[in-house]
Amino acid sequence: MNELELKKLWQTTNEKLEKTLAIDRINSTEISQLKLYHFISSMKPVKIFTLLAGIIWVGLGSIILAHIYLYTFSESNKFFLFSASFQVGLTAIALFIYLYQLITIYQVDITAPILKTQQKLASLKITTLWVTRILLLQLPAWTIFWWNEVMFREWNIFQWLITGSITIAFVIAAFWLFFNIKFENKDKKWFKLIFNGKEWTPLMKSMELLDQVNEYQANVIPGTNADS
Amino acid sequence: MNEKEQRQYFQKIIGQHKGILYKVSHAYCPNEDDRQDLIQEMMIQVWQSIPRYNNQFKISTWLYRISLNIAISFYRKNITRSNKYTMLNEQTAQIPTEEKITEERQLNLLEQFINELKEIDKALMILYLEDKSHAEIAEILGMSISNVGTKIVRIREKLKTRFSQLKS
């Protein structure tokens, strides 16, 4: 089939599409009356819930911790206090990145050239990796927060071996994951195993898309790019 | 532009160029049930982008940018949806003539091929089939004209191979 025949064949889709998709079913007047299409309206309830839960967690945590630092610092359990501060601090950073990502994604200029827009959207989506890395970094805090002075006085070597091993394992795992969860490792088996599942599909898809954009841009001659 | 003018302009654009939205949504959204959502999303973005329309670009270029950007990004909202692809010919069943059967078979092959392409390749293929000039394709995608030429040759080769595979 030659080029002309191919294009002619494609043109036959026009009338068929006219029959199958009735745009009139979507009331264009109704859409034109939409004054505000906020990013929150397009978010899934589960995302809104996660975001709210995170804000409440960080907010309440900060209030309780600030109270301890200000009024009961000397009699407080320092293991709990520093672990909780570390955990709340990291969650706050992750929450900030997540919010920044969501807002920025919905501010991307959708009328700009495809490669430029898709590169920006995919890169922003990939910042989800930063959220994951930061949240994983807080893992060791969960193995320490319950420690207390009594343990140091009364525990035997066997108890310490178990507790210490768990904490060391979590520290190693947290740092290893923090430094290794990155775009460059996306094709490794362990990476695919971690990010397997429907909830990670948009992230994995963004990575694939970024690869495609990079491949297209590899041959772009500087100055000839048709940016708007 | 006041709101009344914007509404009139919007309805004029959609009326004249709805084919762009149809084609892009059909190529990117395999699931028929979700296609209306995709078209609606495209229309919302067209409406919101009208005040920022830069008339140095043709309206079709501008619409292709919006619809392709939305369609390519639709995966972000599309994670639980099935991948069942509905061919146009399955949707518009008619009593076929022999010539029609051949044409429809070829059209199915073409649709199957487009469906198998990666997102950016798919955009390029649609624009090529729509007979857009290399300059306009470059403007829509944001790449050099020479690069458009190279990529089209590669995709055409792929299409040729795939057509012969699918036919056999």
List keywords for this structure.
heterodimer, A: 228 residues, mainly alpha, 11 helices, 70% helix, disordered C terminus, B: 168 residues, Rna Polymerase Sigma Factor, Chain: A, Arc Repressor Mutant, subunit A, 2 domains, 8 helices, 74% helix
Short note summarizing the structure:
Chain A has 228 residues and is mainly α. Chain A is built from 11 helices and no strands.
| SSE ordering of chain A | HHHHHHHHHHH
CATH topology call of the largest domain in chain B: Rna Polymerase Sigma Factor, Chain: A
Described by the principal axes of the CA atoms, the overall outline of chain A is: elongated
Order of helices and strands of chain B: HHHHHHHH
**Per DSSP, what share of the residues of chain A sits in E-state strands of 2 or more residues?**
under 5%
Alpha carbon gap, first and last residue of chain B: 56 Å
CA-to-CA gap between the ends of chain A?
36 Å
Count of helical stretches of chain A: 11
Q: Give unreliable regions of chain B as ranges.
A: 79-85, 89-93
Give a structural overview:
The complex is a heterodimer of chains A (228) and B (168). Chain A is built from 11 helices and no strands. Chain A has helices spanning 3-20, 28-32, 45-71, 78-105, 114-126, 128-137, 139-144, 149-154, 157-180, 189-194, 201-217. Chain A has one domain (35-217). The radius of gyration of chain A is 26 Å and the shape is elongated. By secondary structure, chain A is mainly α. In chain A, helix 3 (45-71) runs antiparallel to helix 4 (78-105), helix 4 (78-105) runs antiparallel to helix 5 (114-126) and helix 4 (78-105) runs antiparallel to helix 6. By secondary structure, chain B is an all-alpha fold. Chain B folds into 2 domains: 1-83, Rna Polymerase Sigma Factor, Chain: A; 97-168, Arc Repressor Mutant, subunit A. Chain B contains 8 helices and no strands. In chain B, helix 1 (3-28) packs across helix 6, helix 2 packs across helix 3 and helix 6 crosses helix 8. The model of chain B is unreliable at 79-85 and 89-93 (pLDDT under 50). The chains are: A mainly alpha (228), B mainly alpha (168). The interface between A and B is large, with 57 and 72 residues.
